[in-house]
Amino acid sequence: MTASQRADEHRIGARDCEATARRLFELEAEAIHLRGINVTLQTQLALRDHALDATSSFFVIAKLEKPAPIIVYCNKIVADQHGLAPEELIGKPITLLAQWVGHNPNYQAQVEAALRAGQTFQYEDEMSRPDGSTFWLGVSIRPLHDSSGRLTHCVAAGADITAKRLERLKKQELQDKLVAEMQERERMVIELQLAQKLESVGRLAAGIAHEINTPIQYVGDSVHFLRSAFDDLDKLFESSRNAGARIPESAERRAYENEIAELAVKYDLEYLRIEVPRAFTRTLDGVDRVTNIVKAMKEFAHPDANEQNPADLRHALETTLLVASNEYKYVARVHTEFGDLPQVVCNVGELNQVFLNLIVNAAHAIKDAGRDADTGEIKIQLAAEGEEAVIRVSDNGCGVPAENLSKLYDPFFTTKEVGHGTGQGLAISHSIVVDKHGGEISVRSEVGTGTEFTVRLPIAGRGEGLIQ
Fold first, then answer.
1. Which of 49, 54, 154, 408 has the fewest C-beta atoms under 10 angstroms from its C-beta?
2. Are 346 and 417 in the same domain?
3. 313 and 454 part of one domain
4. How many Å apart are CA 224 and CA 198, to the nearest integer?
């Protein structure tokens, strides 16, 4: 090798050494930089861990694997709730967090379905701690995707919501109490309005009944007098006819008998003898019916105050049917089945209002169905079942849609046209039967077939503690 070649080789070696040294320097600088970044990342991760460990919220990150996701991170409170250290949970299946599953057997399938759909899964449930105590947990589980959009992880954030739940329940209880108080106040207003209305109607009915009662007594007394007088006149005429037989046979006797016979024919005596007594009987039957209607109106117009006394419900229903006859006589026939029933301790005046409302509603339902007195039917049954009196009022009217059955007793709810119903009748009936008498009122109905209301009342009266 010549000196020139050795010099070239020396220069090449020097350049390689210089490049290597420069590369080593760069690598050292890069290593220092990476160590700095690593320290920064470790500091940030430590800060994150301290922050998440300091919070009262539950925080878990899991990698989606089969058969169960693997825990890659959890904060301290999650481990504490399960009586473990965080490092004991890292790398373990999420099924170790059994307390979080709660009582839902389909929990894992539901979570997976929500995550695959890109949705957040949320739930609340009562959980148990290792010491046996319980708390309410609220959890939200969200999906995590990598840079290519592939679902790889999920993050679950939860918290002990026991206090919030109790606060929410207290608010709900207060709201329910307020609604109940408003409904009770509304019911009392309705009852007061009805009581005032019934008082006015009662006074009016009592006055009308009194005004009718006096002249109908005159009519009845006069008819009795006329019937007696007609009988006397008939006897007088018969005596006059018989008197001719005691006159000796002569032209005068024959003239007298002919005159009597002509008068009998002229005034149709035989017809009058048959029809006048019948007319008196029909008139007196009508007077008796008016008298009974007046009596029923007076009973209906003067209900007992708030006292409950033994009462004959059969008589109460008969009275109500008499008062309500104008509502149903043109649209339905009424069939009654009244079994043996002892007197029931109740406020019969209030129950009259219930019976009247059910009968009138039945008549209106039949009318709405397009029926008449030949095809419409109202059936009223009264019987004793055990310690209860049971009254059933059924009709073959238009029926009530299923979605409206639960609303029937709500104040102001009505299926009738505007101006044809206030929606107060059944609400008040429910209050009278349930609240004031400790009974039950139920309904079953089928559209196009009809409706049946059933009222159950304790025969011995309401128990202690019921609304007075």
1. 54
2. yes
3. yes
4. 37
